[in-house]
From TrEMBL:
Domain of life: Bacteria
Organism: Pelosinus propionicus DSM 13327
GO biological process, one term: cell division
Keywords per UniProt: Cell cycle, Cell division
Protein name: Cell division protein FtsA
SHS2 domain span: 6-203
InterPro entries per UniProt: ATPase_NBD, FtsA/MreB, SHS2_FtsA
Length: 710
């Protein structure tokens, strides 16, 4: 008999209702019920705020029922639609080789659609943390067999079967607080559903769902909405506002304790009192007319009705054919009239419903034929049907309660625990890119280690199926590391070699720079480093490595008032052979560098001794060159000759004159004839080609000039 007992709890914002029923054939017979109100506002808007207080009330209800019917271990519950998220999903199966479909096949198809909805939620951007949401119920929209809509697939044959359903999800916080309150009183959740799902299964059977109906469960903290149309449930919704809004309005208006205001609200319906006597928080007694209180709460009732109407229109687009109100808040004065007005519907089409007759539940006691008993009766009814239940496993030594969607795997457990399977595998370490001598080189990081998943002490895959009380242990893999490289790790360092420069020995070592800074072979490299590596192998490179640069600073002069630079070069030999900057140098080579030759004034000024600029004559039987261009050079305020060294930083004044036919006097100057050497009183005769002539006579190439002194 114990196996046929069903225990249902409706944990509401205002009270906790417990029902015990017995499964007899295809019906449930109610054998006990108990209601206990919260002593404090331990729940608000359908969310448990004080778990110990709620657990204490659950314990009282449980103990009252156990007194007559023995220990109760498992319970069916429903969650309010606070922060509800709904996903419409579809699944299909090929059934050509399945034969006649069974109830198990149909249920498996439904669960496949739920898992598809979970995937949609996980990949959507509608919520920030999809892994923190539980599936708390679903409603089938339609079954289709080979494009033909059916009420059920059981007993059918065909090629392809499809199910469309609406899966509902709630945040983990809502479910975890509910789970915590229940487990703290030594109960285990057998099945879980959503409050509007439970309510609609009581009041709107399949035979009524072709109508566009709205069920509104107005509780204390939330108003849950469910809509039917075209033979199925098409939407669920929730308004975070309900009967407590009216209670708070009364409390504010008359300065009443919340619990006192709640009692006043309940006295507004179902009695013939014309006045209500109350005591406010100041201890002052008041006697207030019922009509006055109703008038004062009317704006708040209208506001609540407007919020519910907006949710209905948001889900249904237009006003429905009728609205059915249940829950304790549905007894609020004028709520049905206000909702009809907001929906622009005839007042009779919005009505409060009571669970007088429920298919599948027999002999409903009179005390449960009230609007607020609809949801607990629905929870009890669904506890005997195929609905969501829990599977208990342990993950990394922490208990984990999974909604048993059928064929749960290790991956499902990780998803429920908020563990991203992609994060389990160690990622490869980041690589680094090094530019070596203008060529890009990539060096990968180390590989990460794989994760280890153990199921009951044995290595397992993510696809491994779970059983009740399985123990899962997950060890995350470690990520790889970025490579740590030095220069000697990425290329062979060439050995040094010996040479001599001007008979002095030198050791030529490789030149290494990292980001233009000199570095050693053991220097550690970083990503994006620019490495230059070479060993000097030409004369210019070798001289640069030994501090004997080939470049000589240019000489600087001021010539006729203008700045001028003049470059000179040393002469180089390798093993006695003339060498240039690009000449190769190898081990034991002997390099000689000539001293620097300073420029002459002639070299600086570009004056040369080409024969075309002179004529040659015989002067006193000696050859003499007569310049056709005459120069005047002043260096640092002193007369200078073109053969003089042009001192660095000198100031030079230079001029020149040209003559086509020199004279005898030019010959005397070119021959450096000094008139002072002629004795006083002597007679001087000048002969040109043995003929007497004057000092101003012109001469030409090959002439003979004789100077006779007597």
């Amino acid at each position: 008999m114990e196996k046929n007992l069903l225990f249902a709890l409706d944990i509401g914002t205002r009270s906790v209702v417990g029902l015990v029923g017995e499964k007899v054939d295809n019906s449930i017979q109610i054998i006990a019920s108990h209601r206990q109100e919260h002593r404090t506002r331990a729940m608000m808007d359908g969310q448990i705020h004080d778990v110990p207080q709620v657990a204490a009330i659950i314990a009282e209800v449980k103990n009252a029922l156990e007194t007559s019917y023995g220990p109760l271990k498992k319970v069916s519950v429903a969650a309010a639609g606070r922060a509800l998220c709904t996903i419409q999903s579809k699944a299909e199966i090929e059934m050509s080789d399945r034969g006649v479909l069974t109830a198990s096949d149909e249920h498996a198809l439904e669960l496949a659609a739920i898992q598809s909805a979970q995937h949609k939620l996980a990949t959507s951007n509608t919520i920030s943390d999809p892994a923190s949401y539980y599936c708390v119920g679903y409603s089938v929209v339609s079954f289709i067999l080979d494009k033909t809509p059916l009420k059920t697939l059981v007993g059918q044959r065909g090629r392809k079967a499809t199910v469309d359903l609406i899966a509902t999800f709630l945040p983990r916080q809502v479910i975890d607080s509910l789970q915590s309150a229940i487990t703290s009183v030594n109960l285990e959740i057998a099945t879980l559903t959503l409050e509007p799902i439970a309510a609609i299964n009581v009041l709107i059977p399949q035979t009524m769902r072709h109508l566009n109906l709205v069920l509104v469960d107005i509780g204390a903290g939330t108003s849950d909405v469910a809509i039917t149309k075209d033979g199925s449930i098409i939407a669920y919704g929730m308004v975070p506002c309900a009967g407590d809004k009216i209670t708070e309005a009364i409390s504010q208006q008359y300065l009443l304790d919340f619990n006192v205001a709640e009692k006043v609200k309940r006295q507004l319906t179902g009695n013939e009192l014309s006045t209500i006597t109350l005591t406010d928080v100041l201890g002052l007694p008041q006697e207030i007319a019922v009509s006055e209180i109703i008038k004062n709460i009317q704006p708040h009732v209208a506001e609540l009705a407007q919020l519910i109407a907006e949710q209905i229109v948001s889900l249904n687009v237009t006003a429905p054919q009728a609205a059915l109100l249940v829950g304790g808040g549905s007894l609020t004065p004028m709520i049905s009239e206000a909702l009809a007005q907001c929906l622009d519907m005839p007042a009779p089409r919005v009505a409060v419903r009571r669970p007088d007759i429920i298919e599948g539940i027999s002999q409903i006691p009179a005390d449960l034929c009230t609007p607020d008993a609809v949801t607990p009766l629905g929870i009890l009814k669904l506890s005997a049907s195929r609905t969501l239940n829990f599977m208990n496993v342990t993950l990394n030594e922490q208990p984990l309660h999974l909604f048993n969607l059928g064929h749960l795997t290790v991956a499902d457990a990780l998803l429920a625990a908020g563990i991203d399977t992609r994060s389990l595998h160690g990622k490869p370490g980041l690589g680094i890119t090094i530019n070596i001598n203008s060529q890009t080189n990539f060096f990968p990081g180390t590989h990460g280690t794989p994760s280890l998943i153990e199921l009951n002490g044995q290595k397992a895959a993510l696809s491994e199926l779970l059983q009740e009380d399985d123990i899962i242990k997950v060890t995350k893999g470690t990520s790889g590391t970025m490579p740590s490289l030095c220069l000697s790790d990425i290329f062979d360092i060439l050995p040094s070699y010996l040479i001599s420069i001007n008979e002095k020995p030198y050791e030529i070592s490789p030149i290494i720079t990292i980001n233009d800074e000199l570095a050693k072979p053991d220097a550690v490299l970083a990503d994006r480093d620019q490495v230059l590596y070479r060993i000097p192998s030409t004369l210019e490179e070798v001289l640069g490595a030994t501090g004997n640069t080939m470049e000589v600073p240019p000489y600087h002069y001021i010539i006729n008032g203008s700045d001028r630079e003049y470059s000179v070069w040393r002469k180089y030999t390798i093993n006695g052979n003339t060498a240039t900057a690009t000449s190769p140098v190898s081990v034991n080579d002997q390099i000689m560098i000539s001293p620097l030759c300073e420029p002459t004034l002639g070299e600086l000024l570009g004056l040369n001794n080409d024969e075309e600029h002179f004529i040659t004559v015989l002067f006193n039987k000696v050859k003499c060159s007569i310049p056709l261009r005459r120069y005047t050079i002043i260096m640092n305020d002193k007369v200078a000759q073109i053969t003089d060294i042009a001192l660095n930083e000198s100031i030079i004044h230079f001029s020149s004159t040209e003559q086509e036919h020199p004279m005898i006097s030019d010959v005397l100057l070119a021959a450096n004839f000094n008139p002072k050497t002629i004795p006083s009183g002597s007679i001087v005769k000048v002969l040109l080609n043995n003929q007497p002539t004057e000092y101003t006579s012109l001469v030409k190439n090959g002439d003979e000039i004789t100077l006779v002194v007597s």
